Amino acid sequence: MEAELDALAAETGFSGAVRANDPTGVLLERAYGLAHRGYGIPNTPDTRFATASGTKGLTALVVMSLVEEGVLGLGTTARSLLGADLPLVADDVTVEHLLAHRSGIGDYLDEEVEIDLSEYAMPVPVHELAETEDYLAVLDGFETKFAAGTRFAYCNGGYVVLALIAERAARTPFRDLVRDRVCEPAGMVDTEFLRSDALPGRTALGYLEIHGEVRSNVFHLPVRGTGDGGIYTTLADVSALWQAFVDGRIVPPERVAEMTRPRSTTPHARYGLGFWLDPETEAIELIGGDAGVSFRSRHDPRTGLTASVVSNSTDGAWPVSRFLRERLFAAAANGAGPQPGDR
Q1: Helical (H) or strand (E) element with 294
Q2: Are 299 and 235 in contact (CB under 8 A)?
Q3: How far apart are CA 67 and CA 61, in angstroms?
Q4: At what angle do helices 156-170 and 55-69 cross, to 10 degrees?
């Protein structure tokens, strides 16, 4: 299997890291390409990568932990904490609507409209987007798309609103909430919201092709992420997140069940609260894609099998994640499971 993966990585020019594990241990762990092209620094299995919208699962867990404590409720309205901010957010939009992408609020990065990720999409200089409150400048001015609760529409802005709500309700910066309520109980020692203009060692720059040139993504994305995306992590930390999540160490098992109950069905998947759900199995996924970033992690709670792929390029993760799904999860579904020779 490693030989097949090496061949696929060479064929597609994959730059990133791959990891698969189950309750018996690590089945597969590989890294390819460069974390920093200018200095020729290679990616390794413990390189930290941006995960784009993979962050949304952590945001949902922060919010649900606040719900569990009674600081928020699923029925809490966004307006009750936004006050006069973002006046176009309808008064009846709730925390649950936002978590399930059923809020209907207008989105600053609307994925129902085709987006060219090579474009410089931020309407303000990206260095001005360092704290969650800073994002008010890009969230405002978008009309409601539909009445809350009436349908699904993936909404990046809705998860920034959730981060704002969490900050204001808990009176704590959002990135501290993620650290204290998700990363620490999960043992995620290498996960945090880093500034893209001050990345420390062992962290990959994101790259994309623009007009035939390969450039870093530093001018494409907010300098530091928030509720809708932008956290950096390692694939070992991602595995730790899945285990802590399904074990009920971040929020209790009844909240886990609530988050993984389908709230919407799309043409290719279902959605719960912060997590994608396989339409035919019990597998749960986190997915992220942005300029110079692609990430997909899949966990099957029945078998404990986890497979994750992260790339510091815009589309690099997708061929490799399909390979892992077909080779690992299909085999597990048929009862074969990973074989000793696959390790």
Answers
A1: strand 293-300
A2: no
A3: 10
A4: 40
pLDDT band at 329 (very low <50, low <70, confident <90, very high): confident
Token digits for 189?
């020692």
Rounded-to-integer distance, Cα 9 and Cα 209, Å: 18
Give the side-chain half-sphere CA count within 13 A for 23.
8
Q: How far is CA 278 from the centre of its chain?
A: 16
CA distance 272 to 286: 11
Task: Yes or no: say if 231 and 188 are a contact pair by the CB < 8 Å rule.
Answer: no
> Cβ–Cβ contacts within 10 Å for residue 254, how many?
10
Q: What does the pLDDT look like over 58-71, one tens digit per residue?
A: 999 999 999 999 99
Decide if pLDDT at 341 tops 60. Answer: no
Q: What is the spatial distance between Cα 324 and Cα 301, in angstroms, rounded to a whole number?
A: 17
pLDDT digits (tens, 9 = 90+) for 78-96: 999 999 999 999 999 999 9
Cα Rg of the chain, angstroms: 19
d(CA 83, CA 98) in angstroms, rounded, equals 17
Any bridge partners for residue 203, and if so which?
A: 48
Are 206 and 313 within 8 A, CB to CB?
A: yes
Q: Name the burial class of residue 129, with classes exposed (0-12), middle (13-18) and buried (19+) by CB atoms within 10 angstroms of its CB.
A: buried
